Amino acid sequence: MRLYLRGDIAAFDQLYTRHRAKVYGYVRKRVYVAAEADEVFQAIWLKFHASRSRYLPRYLVLQWLFVIGRSVVYDHLRASNKGLLDAAAFAEQSAPASKEGLPAELLASLDERSRKVLEERFVDDRSYDEIAERLSLSSAGVRQIASRALRKLRARGNAT
Could you list the pLDDT tens digit for every one of the 160 residues in the chain? Predict the structure, then answer.
């Protein structure tokens, strides 16, 4: 990063090569349409470049990229009017470590298992396979529970 800050383009290429897969994976977990995810991914790197002078060396570059990424993903979801109840926006909105950040009145309408799946997926950022193992369910079953719960939340959110 120090070399990149001094104008070394090859240093940027190294940073991009080293971190692109993790950044793209982060985006794809939150933006499901591939074309939109590609745009968000590009916007993250543009913002990274534009704000490089504000980088603080006490942080890892990847941490900084994820902070930028979170901001860009959130802005994208807000701008595209997806709202809290889109799964991707739900993940962004509920990112705080505490479960108090979740829309309690909507989550209260779900059964305990559905709430647990959504919390593990979007608050604790666990994969479907990890959740399946923790809850002794199949991965497909966990995906189905999450999908149904999100549909229910969307329906209730649109009714309010």
Answer: 989 888 888 999 999 999 999 999 999 988 888 888 999 999 999 999 998 888 888 889 999 899 899 889 888 887 775 544 454 444 444 443 334 444 566 667 788 898 888 888 876 678 888 999 999 999 889 989 988 888 887 776 555 4
Sorted by where each starts, the structural domains of the chain and their CATH numbers stand as 2-81 (1.10.1740.10), 101-159 (1.10.10.10)
How would you write 10-67 as a 3-class SS string? HHHHHHHHHHHHHHHHHHHHHCCCHHHHHHHHHHHHHHHHHCHHHCCCCCCHHHHHHH
